[in-house]
Write a structure and sequence with these properties.
mainly alpha, 4 helices
């Protein structure tokens, strides 16, 4: 789990340019741009989904002994918190 999280942090924070224009500081800006015709962002969105999909499975396995609804609730809460932390970190540590 720690190796996976280290890889996610490296990929999302340290391995790419973080030059952000004003529009990129808007919530869900990449989805808006994709629906307006910027097809290059579709690939990035799919890669983000692929990057975080294993996290849900890993967290779910941690709560394997819990009741099903508790497992689902904890997995969703923790996944949302980690995703929000990554997004916030990208906003704070961007290079302008």
């Amino acid at each position: 789990m720690l190796i996976y999280l280290a890889c996610v942090l490296y990929i999302t924070l340290f391995s790419r340019s973080m030059d952000m224009s004003g529009e990129q500081r808007e919530l869900f800006w990449s989805y808006k741009a994709m629906f307006e015709g910027d097809t290059s962002l579709g690939r990035e969105i799919l890669l983000n989904i692929g990057l975080f999909a294993p996290f849900g499975f890993i967290v779910s396995m941690l709560f394997d002994k819990a009741e099903t609804w508790v497992n689902i609730l904890l997995t969703v809460i923790i996944s949302l918190a980690v995703s929000a932390a990554v997004e916030y970190s990208q906003l704070v540590f961007h290079h302008s």
